């Protein structure tokens, strides 16, 4: 079974917003994980009307801010398989993440997670993002996006 999710490359000026996740949602509630640096991402819930609504909900839950401008939805998606020890806990084998480009319009000092998944939020220089991200598929997505930007 494939979990549908959304995520975003969130930027402000020449910096990119990343979050440190310490919990993931499972069929039985939150599950503690070894910390992972990632873009804001989250699963689509039945109550969400569309991917943009899911994205805005996730942005608020993971940063406590609603001060975002959605620039575009990427055609490319991130696909990955969950590790065996996570599959049974979350009830999904794979994830397909619809990614967006989003501008953060607020004050970075006001960012505070509203859920128990995130323990840290950082705005970092774009050239540091690839080093900080935990997951290879996300690193590759970001690297490809950066390469396209430099060719423009």
UniProtKB/TrEMBL annotation:
It comes from the Bacteria. The keyword Hydrolase applies. InterPro entries: NUDIX_hydrolase-like_dom_sf, NUDIX_hydrolase_dom. Residues 1-147 form the Nudix hydrolase domain. GO terms for molecular function: hydrolase activity. Keywords: Hydrolase. The keyword Hydrolase applies. This is NUDIX hydrolase.
């Amino acid at each position: 079974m494939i979990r549908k999710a959304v995520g975003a490359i969130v930027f402000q000026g020449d910096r990119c917003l990343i979050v440190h996740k310490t919990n993931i949602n499972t069929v039985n509630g939150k599950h503690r994980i070894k910390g992972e640096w990632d873009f804001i991402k989250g699963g689509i819930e039945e109550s969400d009307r569309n991917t943009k609504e899911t994205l805005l909900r996730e942005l608020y839950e993971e940063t406590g801010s609603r001060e975002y401008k959605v620039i575009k939805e990427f055609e490319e998606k991130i696909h990955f398989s969950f590790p065996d020890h996570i599959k049974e806990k979350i009830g999904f084998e794979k994830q397909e993440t619809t990614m967006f480009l989003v501008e953060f319009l607020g004050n970075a000092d006001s960012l505070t997670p509203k859920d128990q998944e995130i323990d840290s939020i950082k705005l970092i220089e774009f050239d540091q993002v690839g080093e900080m991200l935990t997951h290879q598929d996300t690193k590759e997505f970001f690297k490809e996006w950066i390469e396209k930007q430099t060719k423009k």
